[in-house]
Design goal:
This protein has 360 residues and is α/β, with parallel strands linked by helices. Helix content is 41%, strand content 17%. The strands form three sheets. A seven-stranded mixed beta sheet has the order 2-10-9-8-5-3-4, sandwiched between helices. A four-stranded mixed beta sheet has the order 1-12-13-11. A two-stranded antiparallel ribbon has the order 6-7. Helix 5 packs parallel to helix 6, helix 10 packs parallel to helix 12 and helix 11 packs across helix 12. The chain is globular. The structure holds pyridoxal-5'-phosphate. Pyridoxal-5'-phosphate (PLP) binds next to helix 3. Pyridoxal-5'-phosphate binds next to helix 3.
Length: 360
């Protein structure tokens, strides 16, 4: 069987896949209402939130767009804190909807510096909201969101967080860290197929929402809330993925959030030590290296994609490539969701055999 080691979509347990073969049901009936309510409540455990949480049919990017259009107005000043491809995407979404975006970029592979963010916020009091990526999947870096939040919430700004590849895997107490909108996606750490974005919405986000003028229809939180009160979604949801997520969350509840977080820490460490012991180097600043995805530099003078090809054809192991200017320069090992020591050890032993075979 293929060992899918990309940072989403991730493999799903058989029971989760089986759940998707169920016959369709009325999405406005009592059976769906019970499932939607259960999924929403269970998700709140993993978001560590008591606030509103919505399931939106769409991929993670849809959730990012929802965070922006529901809380901001055209012309609003927004600070984008970007450490990679997904941080840049968040900024672009806000720009497309007419926000005036200041882009604060940090070198790829590094985490954002909270002091620098504080200086920018102090210099420009007009800034209303800050866009932050918790775990930057393109570079394998996890920002110190707790420290960033202290600065951002301390300055009274709205904090919109792309936690698509961290929530459910890496500790993120959404309420405690003052995330006003926190976004995740079903196909990352949730052992669920693609199709759902999940968004947590704070009281402060609702206050911003009341005055937010960006155009929105499909993603409108007011509609999501009024339908959820009846156990429904405003539009036809991706029912099979909801079935799947219901099952996956039951499995996750059994393991328990602390154990899930600990497993990701362990596997992140195992991956990093393993690639280093093969003589490879990490792309990310190790102090902030992600426990859901490891970015590895291509061996000297070699193309990372050649290495990926060997693992695919000889071992049925699928690794992620580098995005944009990192194409060929790095490869990425996903270790989130349904993953254990054996999956990582298989990657490491395959890499060991493949390394001497890559042409310069
Ligand atoms: C995967 C990912 C996205 C994009 O999610 P899609 O589901 O592909 O739209 C955005 N941000 C981060 C950090 C991601 O890992």
């Amino acid at each position: 069987m293929e060992n899918l080691r990309i940072p989403g979509p991730t493999p799903c347990p058989d029971e989760v896949l089986q759940a998707m073969t169920k016959q369709m049901i009325n999405h406005r009936g009592p059976e769906f209402r019970d499932i939607l309510n259960r999924v929403t409540e269970n998700l709140k455990v993993f978001f560590q939130t008591k606030n509103d949480l919505f399931l939106l049919t769409g991929s993670g990017t849809g959730g990012m767009e929802a965070a922006v259009v529901n809380t901001l107005s055209p012309g609003d000043s927004v600070l984008s804190v970007s450490i990679g491809v997904f941080g840049d995407r968040f900024a672009t979404i806000a720009e497309q909807y007419g926000a005036s975006v200041t882009r604060l970029k940090f070198e790829w592979g590094k985490a954002a510096d909270p002091d620098e963010v504080g200086r920018v916020l102090e210099a420009d009091p007009k800034i209303k909201a800050v866009l932050v990526t918790h775990n930057e999947t393109s570079t394998g870096v996890t920002n110190d969101l707790e420290a960033l939040s202290k600065v951002i919430k301390g300055a009274g700004k709205l904090l919109l967080v792309d936690a698509i590849s961290s929530l459910g895997s890496i500790d993120l107490p959404v309420d405690e860290w003052g995330c006003d909108v926190a976004v995740s996606g079903s196909q990352k750490g949730w052992m669920t197929p693609p199709g759902l974005a999940m968004v947590g919405v704070s009281q402060e986000a609702w206050q911003a929402h009341a005055n937010a003028k960006m155009p929105r229809f499909y993603w409108d939180f007011t509609r999501a809330k009024s339908y959820l009160e009846r156990g429904q979604t405003p539009w036809t949801p991706v029912i099979p993925t909801v079935f799947a997520m219901d099952k996956a969350l039951q499995i996750m509840m059994k393991e328990g959030l602390p154990n899930i977080i600990a497993r990701h820490i362990r596997l992140g460490e195992l991956t990093r030590q393993g690639v280093k012991s093969l003589g490879l180097s990490l792309f990310a600043d190790e102090k902030y290296a992600s426990n859901t995805v490891t970015a590895v530099n291509a061996p000297n003078g070699k193309n990372a994609n050649d290495l990926r090809k060997i693992l695919l054809t000889e071992n049925e192991i699928v690794l992620g490539g580098g995005q944009q200017r990192l194409d060929g320069k790095i490869f990425r090992i996903g270790h989130l969701g349904m993953v254990n020591e054996g999956d990582i050890e298989a990657v490491l032993s395959a890499l060991k055999l493949a390394l001497p075979k890559v042409e310069v």
